[in-house]
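Limitations
The structure tokens in this dataset are predictions for the assembled complex, not deposited experimental models. Users should treat interface geometry with appropriate caution, especially where small molecules or nucleic acid strands are included. An illustrative entry is reproduced here so readers can see what is and is not provided.
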Amino acid sequence: MQNSTREQIITAADDLFYRQGFEQTSFANIAEAVGISRGNFYYHFKTKDEILKTVIQRRLANTRDMLDQWEAESSGPVERIRSFVRILIGNRGKIMRHGCPVGTLCAELAKLEHLQRDAANEVMTLFRTWLHRQFVALGHEADADALAMHLLARSQGIALVANAYQDSSFVDAEVEQLLDWLDACVAQSTHAE
Amino acid sequence: MQNSTREQIITAADDLFYRQGFEQTSFANIAEAVGISRGNFYYHFKTKDEILKTVIQRRLANTRDMLDQWEAESSGPVERIRSFVRILIGNRGKIMRHGCPVGTLCAELAKLEHLQRDAANEVMTLFRTWLHRQFVALGHEADADALAMHLLARSQGIALVANAYQDSSFVDAEVEQLLDWLDACVAQSTHAE
DNA sequence: TAAAGCATAGGACGATCGTCCTATTCGGTC
DNA sequence: GACCGAATAGGACGATCGTCCTATGCTTTA
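Predicted assembly:
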């Protein structure tokens, strides 16, 4: 059931919500993208809230998988945090075109005061708590959450400005600074021991 | 003609675009906020593009005034840049509720691929070039634009995350870090002489 | 083959959108 | 007091929105 209609709808909605925004994407858009009628769409999802909730759940699951994979692949917390920073490089093109999928959805749902706002924030919280854990493993028990929030904010700012100016060299320069900042964090933690 | 209907419309639209977003704000919303009929509204602004363009022009003018005032009031570039950073403190409440007015509009119009996207970006560019000038005055001729962009991105990131989590202590902590970063910039430039 | 249920198509519905048109009112001028 | 342009009100318009209903296939099961 990988290519079931329901899965196709979720995939198309996920993509359109990212590229056009949630409010700007209509049932007709999604149905057209999948190649089905609006009536059939309604058979699978009764309300727009429901499809949004499902898309967010998928993003949560995908994010958890990605973070788990980094946890399994990378040898230590420093390399794991570097994996996070390097999303900005790997998704450079998409980010310049449409911004960060996490940040833009949170910002839009906040402005709409939408019911699913907290659910969208949870995707960001997934990164927040994961980063928190990595900084704790790095020896920053006391300020682990502050460091995680700092890194989140830096990434979001880079994505937003890169999206506005469509500037890829800016992303590269900022990522390098972030990696330097991370090295300084490591040095500070080993120094404190 | 300070309180003319046209001025009232622009003020109401500016506020509603900020709080609800551009796309989510209808002519009816603005007309109701001003207390006039939709027909009268159309007498002053023929299209939604036109009202958006006017609102952005007002924001550009207001931003220029603010930057000019900082230029006149503050004694040197460091204190001027500090004024920029402190917007995050002064507008803490509004930013937590609705995000940064500059960044959220740029992000929304980018996602809509709206005609006025470049105009919205210009507000951000106003800060960018102003900050650029301050960093040049600080002795950072070579990397003035990179520093300006860095500061822009940091501010935008702080605003976005603060908006998502409605966390004011996070804003305070990050602003303090920004001011430290600025001091380090000053030290580096005086050291290089 | 008949029955049953899932999946799909197509359109109707009320509401709201941006836009536009037409009266009507108001304020100042000969 | 007649006149005229600016300002305002109210509603009509086509389109699109989310939602919902119904009829028609398609597939499986007895």
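Some entries come with short summary sentences. For this one: Residues 5, 36-40, 43-44 of chain B lie near DNA strand D (CB under 10 Å from a C1').
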